[in-house]
Specification:
Order of helices and strands: EHEHEHHEHEH
Oligomer: single chain
CATH topology: Rossmann fold
Structural class: alpha/beta
Shape: globular
CATH architecture: 3-Layer(aba) Sandwich
Number of domains: 1
CATH class: Alpha Beta
């Protein structure tokens, strides 16, 4: 298959969630750049476990991985005042905004017009809400947020199959310390 000239920056939250999105985007013809920016992940050793799994996945698929600086203080500043919100509440929205904004900034700095996120593959995340956040950010940066519901067509099952085949690290919470409660 001939690659599209279009590149796409895929914000990756973890290797489990990004397996199928990387595969699908490549099958569609995009040149995928996996962008690992997750200052929300707690504790730091958990961050590095997830990063190592992402490296394994990207090596498997032959896609470029960009690891952004781990800056948990940025996450805590972004969610200040929302620490006691329930899962799927405003704290999560602030976290998504932080990570997608940074992804858009990276895409723009690289001259890449398209970006999306693997977060939407999780059955615990709201596709419409994430798409709205992504589209709002895309407008600010004159980019295209590619809203693909990776859960469709058994995407969550497929991503889990990929992670098992590659023996990737499997976490049991979204990543932030507030989700551990």
């Amino acid at each position: 298959m001939e690659l599209k000239e279009d590149k796409i920056v895929l914000h990756t939250c973890c290797a489990i969630c990004s397996g199928y999105p990387v595969s699908l985007l490549q099958d569609t013809g995009y040149q995928v750049i996996a962008y690992f920016y997750n200052p929300n992940i707690y504790p730091q050793d958990e961050y590095f476990r997830r990063l190592e799994a992402e490296k394994t996945l990207c090596t498997h698929f032959g896609c470029k991985l960009v690891e952004e600086v781990y800056e948990p203080d940025k996450f805590y500043n972004a969610v200040k005042g929302f620490e006691n919100e329930p899962e799927k509440g405003r704290r999560c929205d602030k976290c998504f905004e932080l990570r997608l904004r940074k992804t858009a900034e990276f895409a723009r700095s690289e001259g890449i017009k398209n970006f999306t996120t693997s977060i939407v593959i999780s059955p615990h995340k709201n596709f419409e809400k994430l798409s709205q956040i992504g589209n709002n950010i895309a407008k600010l940066y004159d980019l295209n947020y590619i809203a693909i519901d990776f859960k469709k067509k058994d995407g969550f099952l497929k991503t889990n199959r990929i992670s098992k085949e590659l023996s990737l690290y499997r976490q049991n919470y979204c990543g932030c310390k507030f989700a551990l409660r």
